[in-house]
Amino acid sequence: MRHIIYITTAMDKDDFANYLPHWKSSPNPSNQNFHNKMIRSLAINNRIDVISVRPFSKSLCDLKNLKKEEKEDGNISWHYIAIQRDIFRKLINGHRQVNTLVKKYAKDDTIVFVDTINPAIVHFAKHSLKRKKLRVVGLCTDSPSNITGTTRSYTVYLLSHTNAYSGYIALTTGLDELFNVSKKPSLILEGIVEENLSNPKEKIGKYFFFGGALLARYGIYDLIKAFRLFSKTNKGYKLMISGHHADVKGINDAIGGDKNIKYLGAITVDECYAYEKGAIANINPRPFSEDLDRYSIPSKTLEYLESGVPTISVKNSKLQKVIGDLIIWSKSSSDKELAKALEHVVSLTKEERKALGDKAKEKVHDLYSLKSVNKKVNDFLKKLD
User: Fold this and answer.
1) How far apart are CA 341 and CA 312, in angstroms?
2) pLDDT tens digits, one per residue of 217-238
3) CA 357 → CA 199, 272, 375, distances in Å?
4) Beta partners for 211?
5) Which of 51, 195, 208, 252 is 20 to 30 Å from 310 at the Cα level?
6) Selection from 183, 184, 213 nearest residue 299 by Cα
7) Could you tell me which residues are beta bridge partners of residue 218?
8) Alpha-carbon gap, residue 257 to 228, rounded angstroms
9) 37, 114, 34, 119: which is closest to 298 by C-alpha?
10) Strands 69-73, 76-80: parallel, antiparallel or unpaired by DSSP?
11) Residue 94: which of 71, 127, 118 has the closest Cα?
């Protein structure tokens, strides 16, 4: 059994669910979900000390501060550091706390995992590890330039302070090339899924579901237009929408009072799983772009595949290779093409939809389940010994 220190912004699932109501606009759950699943995957046969620097915002979070907390869960020890609203105090106190925890728990054979997309995490890791001869693995889940609202200095800082780690785990080969300039040992891992054990949502009727980033550049408005186009000739269906980064007024204006489209706001992971499982199909309307295709994997698409119902998605090169025609591919994110994909779903019999969903679930489970990822990562870590 290895010992791993995991420095991240992620939280225990229940803690994250309890944290969401304190936010006016909830933090992006994508990284939370990936790292939470990675931690639980590693914990199958490794001992994990998680040092969590929880996201915090003066303007968006109603909490005055975040208190230090400790939590045990099997092979996982969660160490939530105290966070203040004042950015200077946050950096100084955060550095001290992370340094103390690393000093307390690190052994000679400890491996440290670092989230490479968060400046605070990278900063704390850099200063806490600089005098220690520990192996460090960078977890590369996105390109800094893809993060909404960031600056060039943000990108330069991250790339210049994460380029000398012992190894890298990246979602795409593009991300590995971006961060791993020294060509250290690496693992390309498109994502992680956990078994969807939720009870499907009932009494809603036949509905399509989308959950994710509610930004125009990720296709939400095209999807709403597509559903309204589809509904002109296909009655009795609904579209359920949830997610983060929403322009609530913009979403409601786009819905325009259509009673068959419901905006759910930000919901918990378990609620999302329940909606996915009860849908007639789940949809990823994110437009194709070379940058997104090179540097990111639509994590929601993998999650949808685990639900056991059909998945509609716009092009993604890697998933087209690994999943193939078990995904219903829309030619583009235009309203007309997405509407065609919706029509294709309803043209299938209930048995055909179930067969497609079951095959996709089996495929994604074989490739990306917690157990499968555990084996891949453990095999990769042997290269660092």
Assistant:
1) 7
2) 999 999 999 999 999 999 999 9
3) 16, 17, 25
4) 242
5) 252
6) 213
7) none
8) 12
9) 34
10) antiparallel
11) 127
Q: Which two tokens stand for residue 307?
A: 């639900």
What whole-number distance in Å separates Cα of residue 331 and Cα of residue 229? 17
Do 188 and 170 meet the contact criterion of CB atoms below 8 Å apart? yes
Dihedral, 82, 85, 88, 93 alpha carbons, nearest 10? -10
CA distances from 57 to 24, 25, 172, 301 (A): 10, 10, 30, 29
**pTM exceeding the 0.85 threshold for the entire prediction:** yes
Rounded Cα distance between 173 and 254, Å, is 37
Q: 25-55: buried (b, 16+ CB within 10 Å) or exposed (e) per residue?
A: ebbbbbbbbbbbbbbbbbbeebbbbbbbbbb
- Among candidate residues 192, 176, 172, the one with its CA nearest the CA of residue 316: 172
Structure tokens at 367: 């490739």
* CA 374 remoteness from chain centre: 17
Name residue 329's beta-bridge partners.
313
Percent of the chain with pLDDT over 70: 98
For the chain, give the secondary structure using H, E and C.
CEEEEEEECCCCHHHHHHHHHHECCCCCHHHHHHHHHHHHHHCCCEEEEEEECCCCCCCCECCCEECCEEEEECCEEEEECCEECCHHHHHHHHHHHHHHHHHHHCCCCCEEEEECCCHHHHHHHHHHHCCCCCEEEEEECCCHHHCCCCCHHHHHHHHHHCCCCCEEEECCHHHHHHHCCCCCCEEECCCCECCCCCCCCCCCCEEEEEEEECCHHHCHHHHHHHHHHHHCCCCCEEEEEEEECCCHHHHHHHHCCCCCEEECCCCCHHHHHHHHHHCCEEEECCCCCHHHHHHCCCHHHHHHHHCCCCEEEECCHHHHHHCHHHCEEECCCCHHHHHHHHHHHHHCCHHHHHHHHHHHHHHHHHHHEHHHHHHHHHHHHHHHC
The structure tokens 């994990």 sit at 48
For 232-236, the CB contacts below 8 A with 24+ separation are 234/342, 234/343, 234/346, 236/205, 236/206
**Residue type (1 letter), 10:** A
By the 8 A CB rule, do 143 and 43 touch?
Answer: no
Rounded CA separation 261/238 (Å): 6
Closest Cα to residue 140, out of 97, 187, 202, 91?
Answer: 187
